[in-house]
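Marked as duplicate of an earlier ticket. Keeping the data here for the record.
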Amino acid sequence: MKQTPFTAKHIALGAKMAEFAGYHMPISYSGINDEHHAVRNNAGIFDVSHMGEFILKGPHALDLIQRVTTNDASKLTDGKAQYSCLTNENGGIVDDLLVYCLEKDKAYMLVVNASNIAKDWEWILRHNHAGVDMHDISDKTCLLAVQGPQATRILQPLTEMDILNLPYYTFSRGHFAGVNNVLVSATGYTGAGGVEIYFEDKEGAADQVWNAILEAGSPKGLKPIGLGARDTLRLEMGYCLYGNDIDDFSTPLEAGLGWITRFSKPFTASEYLSRQKSNGPEKRLVGFEMLDKGIPRHDYKIRDAEGNLIGRVTSGTQSPTLGKAIGLGYVLTEFSTLDTSVWIDVRDRPLQAHVVKLPFVQQP
């Protein structure tokens, strides 16, 4: 298994460790519920250095991004970011990603899922007909996400950048905790506020930044958080997890990602997806709350009142914030309207649920 620059720190803190996307990652420290509430109500620090980062540079960098991603990156200016996805020829999602505009029309950073680094690199390279300068900086990039309503207040004394007032989906670059050339962005995956901190793993920077954040935050209740709570936090917001809720066989329109699918420019499968938009997708990703007691899990079957198979669960958990079981799943479109009753096969027992509006938990 690969290690991040912070693996030894997780182990020293007593984290429960497990393999995730080929990395030795912390799943929990004090417990998923405790860590979840810490982020929702205060602040927590996540090691997400397993994520991948690509730099695309040159006069044709934007053209390449426009060709392989669904969103319209031409609208990005320096210091802004957007959520997007890569699609294959059949409209399926190769990956979802973030696009950061480092220098308009000249330099961009793409942040991709850890499990898809090699796959995404080859996919983009395959479409790089104009010789765009591409660099995979994943292995030398540290990424810490400090999330929660108090996160930026805790971090502000560590930098001259104004992160207290950093608008959503923007970023700044500068000194942080005595380390130069740090990128701090507001593109979080928890719905609780906070920032993500990117910097190069060199000259002890990983130890320096981690220690500074813990020293500043621990007296104020900041806690280290594992991937378990990251999953419950993102699910409460209805955010998709690649490999569960989206994959090569689900389209962005089916997944409720029409808002990042822009037909103002051609991209891979844009014609196919345009037709799907006109005709309407046959299935849709919905959020649901359990009415009967039971927890939905990935790949559990979803049925109608007569017991007919109408879909499957993609993600499910007991929501720490709501105190009830929630989930995401694909159902036939006619069953996707709000308040529709559905039944989830939980351990071979049909348990009632109903379709609800996302997110499950409102952002502050």
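See parent ticket for discussion. The chain has a mean pLDDT of 98.
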